[in-house]
Structures are given as structure tokens and as C-alpha cells.
Amino acid sequence: MPPLLEFSDNPFRDREDIGKATIALIRALKPYFSRGNARVQLPVCSGSHFDETAAQLEGFARPIWAVAAALAETSCVPDPELRCYAQRLVEGIANGVNPEQPEYWGGISDWDQRMVEAEPISFALLIAPGTFYETLSEQSRLHLTEWLSRLNGKIMPVNNWRWFRIFSNLALNRICGVSIESTRALIEEDLAILDQFEIGDGWCADGIWKKDMMQGHGAYSRQADYYSGSFAIQFSQLLYCVIARDSDPDRALHYRNQAREFASQFWRFFDEDGAAIPFGRSLTYRFAMGAFYAAFALAKCYDSSNCYTSVGFVKGMLLRHLRWWAKHSDNVFAVDGTLTIGYLYPNMFMCEDYNSPQSPYWSMKSFVVLALGADDEFWTASEIPHPLSLAYAKNSPLAGIKLLSAPCQILCDHPLGQHHFMLSSGQYCQWPLKATQAKYSKFAYSSAFGFSVPTGALLSQLALDNTLSISRDNGETWTTRWETIGDPQVKAFAYENFEIECLQSIWKPWKASNIEIESTLIPPCDAWPDWHVRLHRIRRLHNNLTLPESLSLVEGGFAIQAKQPRKMGTLGEDWRGTSEAESILNASGSSLILSHAGVSGVRSILLSEGYTEGSVLKSDPNTNLIEPRAVIPTVLYKVDLQPTQELTIATAVFAIANGKRHFSRAELFQRWCQQPQFTENISSQL
Fold this sequence. Notes:
This protein is an alpha+beta fold. It folds into 2 domains: 371 residues, Glycosyltransferase (Alpha/alpha barrel); 294 residues, Beta-galactosidase, Chain A, domain 5, CATH 2.70.98. Helix content is 29%, strand content 19%. The protein is built from 20 helices and 20 strands. The strands form 4 sheets. It has a 9-stranded mixed beta sheet. Strands 7, 12, 13, 18 and 19 form a 5-stranded antiparallel beta sheet that branches. Strands 3-4-5-6 form a 4-stranded antiparallel beta sheet, with no helix packed on it. A hairpin with a 2-residue loop joins strand 15 and strand 16. Helix 3 packs across helix 4, helix 3 runs parallel beside helix 5 and helix 11 runs parallel beside helix 13.
């Protein structure tokens, strides 16, 4: 698939570069506008759970994030092509909100996707009223007021959607002339709900982080993903700081302080080159993963006393992320230059039921920095390098390992290794989301290797990277971790001279069964910088059954690109002299894949009793978000679990990504041999 000129070759160094990228993206949409300019329909036949009119409204509304920012009253003189596109948008708004027009968007009802698209339209009214409101006729202004007002009194999810109604009411008050008295209570009600999402350390969840969620609103979850930062919540809080800093100064100050606290941790989700760790839902929004930094700059939340919130740091984080997407965008765009559903290539397996062909343009949230004038300090400041690049220079051995208590994750990029990833424990999403276990409940997520989603029920179709998969019927059916029981615990683990913080959670493979598993995730350290360890205690709780239960367990490592790997014998051999071709090596309890993308392997390092076998799982094509053809190193455990018995297994997971340093086969062999050493005595600490 062809790259998109002025995006894929874009250096993303300044405001002009982001403007060029915006024009390239909207230029590709022009042929797909409706006659009245109120809808955009890409030439892809793909359904979503909402109606087609709402889907086409997505294509119309989502690019407004960038276009309205470029036309902000404090911005520069806009490019003529942007101005022409904006005129088309204004005509589309007039037709879209007019019930007498054939392209009317329809009134907003309960649980309606139109609520989502009302936010960028409201943003345009608030930040560029001269273009998007004052040019409307009196009749069109009345229709627009009526359309936005229909968000009020409707049922909507208890999650980030509450922000959409807040901004619609702010636009009604500030721009459309609706009295603040009529909406003040509604805004305060939504803000009070959103404030319940705070979980500490600057973090917010995408909903209420506990089981006793509001009565009548369905399933509960624990989600702190990119919605918490860039896609919606922190992003919207920062926009609120821009729009309501004078009318609601106390809350705006709170949000600014919260954003600074969040910024001190969120940078760890991005590697030195700007790649983010894929995690959670809606990843087809792609470079919106960096939108937190765009909103942070727009709200001018800088604090030079904190190295993670200075203007140069924020600029570097945003622009590095955009440069990474430019560099890796060869398979992101369709032949007509429009964005596809997927991550690094078109992929329907990983999308949500709310992803229409037009949904990916939520990515343009990262371009709201266009609202800053060319002489703004954001554009004139020098980029500050990624903190881990500085850590390498200082040879700080623990700079790349950090426990983030609020989201229940450990961010890992050990200076002596070469792999940027997270260990995750305790998050889950219970509402019916495609591949929900894969998106929230795996043990590890990597910026280099991504993660995989299932395509079917067979083992190869389940694509079980970074999971412990369990079968009680000799491999006919499999299950993995989903919901955890209680809160995850932080455990201190002493290994030789190291004190290592670990995450521990309890879960049940089958809710109705008497088996529970306690999983402990142990991050890299100086003793094993290329490894992490997963220790599982499998317990069969007391019941009336006296027969042992036979279990098959498969522990998967990181999925890795391997187009045509060839087997190279066993891991007991010295494979330092093998060729540079992709290769697979297996042993009784180990499996290793050497690829042009790096190295991925697993070793069984502790088994109370039972049988192990290492093998490579060739997963279904298009299961991995980053590589359409991927394989997964695995260890198979077979155990017989007696009543009231506890068995312990531990798997060491090895990974080195292709990067700045090149390792010879001899060096890789040496690093593979530098494995963690575990015994029952050591594991008893945890």
C-alpha cells in the first residue's frame, strides 16, 4: 500500500509540518463528501453497531479537530486549502442540523453515537467561532442550538462520553446564546461523575474503578488506557482548562495539576523513537495516542521545575510520536490516501463494533496544537530528548523500570537490555468488547512487538502471546486471564543483591470452577535485563471431588515477525555460529525465535511437578497488531492437580527488539544463557 505524501515523508519538526500533514489527510477525504457536504462516506463496506448516518457524521466531524485548531482566532493565517475545506464544513453543519434537509444528521437520542461527534463540532464553535458560527445564517444557528441541546436529558454511558455533553453545553452557553442557568446543573452533574474516575497519581479510569458502579448502568470494569490520557479524559480536562479557566478557575487549576502529575508517568508509555505501547481499545485511532501532549501544550500547563512538563519535553514527546507514525505508515493508508481500520496495517480483527470506516480520524486530535500561533513558545522551543536516552547516557541501571500503582502496571525499558514494554495486572473490561481479554488482561504489552487478538477458538487462532492459556479437556477448549479477584498487590522480591517490586493478582480460569491462580509478574533487573518472570501458583480449592484434575497450560512469549523461519536444532546446542536467517530453536522446556525484528523466547524455570515442552506457535495471519505474519514462542505444561493441592510454575520470558544496538549471534547466545534462576525457596518469598 502506498505511503501518503506530506504525512509519510513528513519530518514533523514545526507548525508548518503539522499543517501539511493535516492538508494531506483532509485532501484524501474530499472526494467522499456528500452533495450537501454534511457527510463523508469512505468507499469501504463495513458496518458498525450504530446507524450509517452516524458513521458518515464521523467522517465529517473528526477532522474538525485539526481544521478548527488551524483556524483558531489566535492562530496564523490559514492555508487557502484549509480555508476552503472549512467553508465546506460550515455548509455541512448548516445542512446536517436542519431537519428539512435530506442530509440531516438526525436528532440525538439515548446512547447515541452523535453524542461523540458533537464534541469536535462544539470544539470548533468554541475555538473558532468566527469561522464555524458567525458565518451561519440565523436559521442555521437556531437549528444548531436545537441539535446540540438534544444531548441534555439523554442516557449516556458513565465514561468519557460525559465530556462530550459538557463541551456541547459550553458551546451552547458561550457561543449559541443559551443561558448558563439552564445548563449549569447539567454541567456540574457530569463533572461530578467524571471526578469519580480519578484513581490517584494524576490518573483517571475510563469509568468508575470499582464493582459497585452506578445502579442501572451495566457491567463494571477497570480500564486505564489511552482513553484515560490522550483519547478523551485528560485530553478533555485540558481543553476545559483552556475554555473555562476564567469561569471555573478552581477546577481548571485542579485539572492542570493533575495533568502535570500524569505527565510524570505517561511518558513511559512511549519509547525513545516515539512508539507507544499498544494497550486497550480503539487503537485504530493510532497517533491520537500522543494527543495528551497536544492538549497539554494548548492549555500551557508547562512547569519548568519538573523535567517532564517543560515546553521542550512536551514538544519532543508529541513530535517524536508523530515522526514514528510517519516512518511506519506505509501500510496505514488505503490507495486513495484515506486511513484504514487497523494499527500498522488494515486489520478488522482488532477493531471494535463502534469502528466505522471513518472512525480512525479521531487521530487528528493530536493536531490541536495548530491553534498555537507560529511564534508560540511551543514552536520556538528546542525538543528535549526522551528521558530513557538520557538514562542510557548516565548508565542508570534502574531508570527504565517503574511501578505505576494507579494503573497497576510496571513500565520496563532496562538500560542494559533493548525492549520497551509493560507488565500489567488487574485491569479488565467487562462490557462486550471484541477481544477484551487480549486488549486488557494479558501479562505484557510491547511497543516493539504489539499484541495479538484471537480469530477463532483453535490454539493457533487464539494467538496466545503473553498469556497463560489453560485447558481442562486435553486442549479442546482454552481460557485465559480476564477478570482479577480483588486488587492486585505489590510485592517486594529479593534476588541476590536486588530488591524488585512485583505485581501479583489472583484470577479464576473458570468462574464456576474450584481452581484459582495467583500470578506474580517480576520485571527485568541487572541480573537479567532481557528477561521478565511470570510465577503462577495454581490452587485447587477444597471440594468433595477426590480425583486429580488434569490441566494443560500454555505460556506464550512475545509474538514476533517471522516470514519464513527455519528450524535450527535444539537450544542445548551452541547456535552462535548459525546464519543470520530467521530461525526457530526448541527444547523440552524452552523455545526461541530469531527474527529480523529481534529475538523472542520463553524458558520454563520452575515446575513443582509435571511435564514441559517448548514449541513455536504459528498464529493465524493478521492476529498481531504490528506484524501480519507472526509466531509465538510457547512452553506447554501438563500437570495433574490434586484436591486442595498447590502447584507452582515459573516461566522466564526473553525478548530483544531490533534497535540502535546490533547483537551478534554470540552475544545473543550469551544473553539467552543469562536467564533467571529460580527455586522453590526463592519463589516462597512471593
